Amino acid sequence: MYNDKVRAKKRLGQHFLKNEDIARRIAEAVRTPDAHVLEIGPGMGVLTQYLLQQNFADLAVVELDEESVAYLQQHFPQLGDNLIAGDFLRMDLAERYQDKFVIIGNFPYNISSQILFKVLDYKDQAVEVVGMFQKEVAERVTAKAGNKQYGILSVLLEAFYDTEYLFTVGENEFNPPPKVKSAVVRLTRNFDKKLHCDEATFKLVVKTAFNYRRKTLRNALQSLPFPADLIASDPIFSKRAEQLTVQDYENLCLQLHKS
């Protein structure tokens, strides 16, 4: 399937997967039955060919690179109108999908975090994500409190999704090979997970804390109007951002609303 007809473009963060066994494993990692599936950045379709073999409700692909779009039109005519020439980050997913959907792909590494932030915007529809990331990003996505990789994305995703690190992929499985290892991650929406505080405030507290992750919360959160006596008495303010669980951040959010 793989050939050199499409030139990988550095500005688009393209690294074409050439190992078809890995492509098959990614396609088979989707656990949502009869899903509406959207593949991001199909390139030359090494993953697309295996997605088309799955029993999905439908499959659409979105590709920004004009050269890749032309290749896909020629080699996957069965996609028809489900081949979207455009930028995923600019798509109105609620307009396209009235029902729940799944996101999948060998994601362009230069926008992989932005893809996940967009998924969070559609968390009540995006019930599953299976994607290839840089290994460092994959570790951050699935990290738990206390881990040095734990960050903003870790907390925000864990608040709504069950996250799984599936497997690592070496540099030489791509053309051109990236300078880092990659990994495949699965996110599954857990509707039992509910925030017990205002979501906007929750995000603000998390992002503010991690913007000063080397500082204790007493210093990191000083721009937010927490009561002075609470900051002085509650031991949580002696901790750093990566030490707090989702519930800890919820509690801080609730305290902020009381002030």
Q: What's the end-to-end separation, in Å?
A: 61 Å
- CATH-assigned fold name of the largest domain: Rossmann fold
Count of distinct strands: 9
Query: Major sheet: size, sense and barrel closure?
Result: 7 strands, mixed
User: Mean of residue pLDDT?
Assistant: 92
Report strand %: 15-25%
Return the domain count: 2
Element-level helix/strand string: EHEHEHEHEHEHHEEEHHHH
- Level-1 CATH class name of the largest domain: Alpha Beta
* Secondary structural class: alpha/beta
Which spans have pLDDT < 50 for at least 5 consecutive residues? none
Tally of individual helices: 11
If classified by CATH, what would the architecture of the largest domain be? Answer: 3-Layer(aba) Sandwich
Radius of gyration: 20 Å
- The geometry reads as elongated
Helical residue percent?
25-40%
Which homologous superfamily in CATH is the superfamily of the largest domain? Vaccinia Virus protein VP39
List the helices and strands and how they pair.
Elements: E1 16-17, H1 20-27, E2 36-40, H2 48-51, E3 58-63, H3 66-75, E4 83-85, H4 93-96, E5 101-106, H5 112-121, E6 126-134, H6 135-142, H7 152-158, E7 161-169, E8 174-175, E9 182-189, H8 199-211, H9 217-220, H10 228-233, H11 246-258
Parallel strand pairs: 2-3, 2-5, 3-4, 5-6
Antiparallel strand pairs: 1-8, 6-9, 7-9
Helix pairs in contact: 8-11
